[in-house]
Write a structure and sequence with these properties.
Blueprint lengths: L2 E5 L3 H13 L3 E5 L2 H11 L3 E5 L7 H9 L9 E5 L6 H7 L4 E4 L7 H9 L8 H66 L4 H5 L2 H32 L7 E3 L1 H18 L3 E4 L8 E3 L1 H17 L6 E9 L17 E8 L40 H11 L3 E6 L10 E8 L5
Parallel strand pairs: 1-2, 1-3, 3-4, 4-5, 7-9
Antiparallel strand pairs: 6-8, 9-10, 10-12, 11-12
This protein binds adenosine-5'-diphosphate.
The site of adenosine-5'-diphosphate (ADP) has 20 residues, from helix 10 and helix 11.
């Protein structure tokens, strides 16, 4: 039996048309606005489309014109349905690409028959001598609607940009404001916990536990404030790099040391490539470590217990392999560090968004702040900072993953490219 797509925003009309058409055996699918109508038409490939002309967003005429321009739908009859019967409506519908025009409210008795006529190939035409007049009028309508929408979009974009600037300013301000009291707390805490402090001399196990808890909390807060400051610096292009020769062996050793306990606690395996003959690069070593720390802590968090994390390195050398000496890399070449894990993976459609600040793939309600627990969330600043630092070096950072699957664990591969660089 024929399949009819009905594009209509009013539910009462949809129910009525559905009842009438289903009672004579048609299959009815529905959409509530122009864009979802186009999508439904492509997916469902209906035999006929009933198009309410007065729908939100793109109107029914424009939606009909768009559908008619799609290769696999240009033969599908579209019948306009409208309540506003005004002079020229019929011609307008035909000019937009509709086969014909029916008025609303529908005539329940005759409706199935009218639809059947269009299914069998009825096609109304605008008299030839009036065609160009209606075509021009239709073009003008579409263009003025387009101009209206472009203006709306421009205003919406400006509003978004203002909100984004305000958000950035707020982050910068909050980080600066938090820094001072935090420094004071941290300073007093160091006094309390210094080996020779009178408190430590008398401290019992409970006091030591409390001090330990405060220290952990303060360290976390410091990390967060540091991240907020880094995000601000990256956004304003004021991140200062202290470039010097950096040996990857040193970087990897530090990472291995930093994460030894964490991976052991999660029973994970960390395999780090031998950097053997790779000459040093000109970079900010601490910042390169920061990138890898962020990637590593994600790899640990999003990989189940017992999983595997690998760090590999390649030289990307515009020239034939082996043409560089073993002490320096030619200018213009790059190194690529790959951090791969056997974790839950990342959905394809989110692989770009995770580099945006505060972005989290999962619901914020599920958020459990943890640096190492399986699927423990963070503030969503790790990857934007890692990418920002890579880009400040003239490098890049992206991810490859076959998708998110906490059972099969397809894993994720982060590719970090850094230029060999040169002394400034
Ligand atoms: P967070 O502080 O939430 O970890 P990030 O910016 O470091 O923030 O990461 C953003 C999001 O990207 C994470 O919430 C997570 O959903 C996803 N993600 C990052 N790394 C991985 C990974 N190795 N495996 C799976 N998902 C990841």
């Amino acid at each position: 039996m024929p399949k009819i797509l009905y594009v209509e925003d009013h539910i009462a009309n949809r129910i009525l048309v559905r009842q009438v058409l289903e009672s004579v055996g048609y299959t009815v699918v529905e959409a509530t606005d122009g864009l979802s109508g186009i999508e439904a038409a492509q997916q469902e490939q209906p035999d006929l489309i009933l198009m309410d002309v007065d729908i939100p967003g793109m109107d029914g005429y424009e939606t009909a014109t768009r559908i008619k321009s799609l290769p696999n739908l240009n033969g599908t009859p579209i019948v306009a349905l409208t309540a506003q019967v005004m002079a020229g409506d019929r011609e307008r519908a035909l000019t937009a690409g509709c086969s014909g025009y029916l008025t609303k409210p529908i005539d329940v008795d005759r409706f199935p028959e009218q639809v059947a006529e269009f299914l069998e190939g009825r096609r109304d035409f605008v008299p030839r001598e009036q065609e160009s007049v209606y075509l021009r009028e239709y073009n003008e309508r579409v263009v003025s609607h387009l101009a209206e929408k472009v203006q709306e979009l421009t205003l919406a974009n400006e509003a978004l940009a203002r909100t984004d600037t305000m958000k950035s300013r707020f982050i910068a301000l909050a980080a600066h404001e938090l820094r001072t009291p935090l420094a004071a707390i941290s300073g007093y805490l160091s006094l309390l916990t210094a080996a020779d402090s009178p408190i430590m001399a008398q401290a019992d196990a409970k006091t030591l536990e409390v001090l330990d808890g405060i220290t952990t909390g303060v360290d976390r807060l410091k990390g967060l404030v540091q991240d907020m400051l880094d995000v601000t610096r990256i956004e304003t292009g004021t991140l200062q790099l202290r470039r010097a020769p950096v040996h990857l062996a040193w970087v990897f050793q530090k990472i291995q040391k930093d994460f030894a306990n964490v991976v052991a606690r999660r029973n994970q395996q960390l395999i780090v490539a031998d950097t053997g003959q790779i000459p040093p690069i000109w970079a900010d070593g601490e910042r390169v470590i920061q990138i890898l720390r962020n990637l590593m802590s994600n790899a640990v968090k999003y990989t189940p217990d017992g999983g595997k994390i690998e760090i590999n390195v390649e030289i990307l050398n515009g020239e034939p392999t082996g043409s560089h000496s073993s002490t320096t890399l030619p200018l213009g070449s790059y190194i690529k560090i790959i951090v791969s894990d056997s974790g839950v993976g990342i959905p394809a459609e989110q692989q770009e968004f995770i580099f945006e600040k505060f972005y989290e793939v999962r619901e914020i309600e599920l958020h459990s702040t943890s640096k190492i627990n399986f699927m423990g969330g963070g503030a969503g600043l790790g990857l934007p900072i890692a990418r920002g630092v890579a880009e400040a070096h003239g490098g890049s950072l992206w991810v490859e993953s076959e998708g998110f699957d906490p059972q099969a664990c397809p894993g994720s591969k982060f590719h970090l490219i850094l230029p060999v660089g040169e002394p400034l």
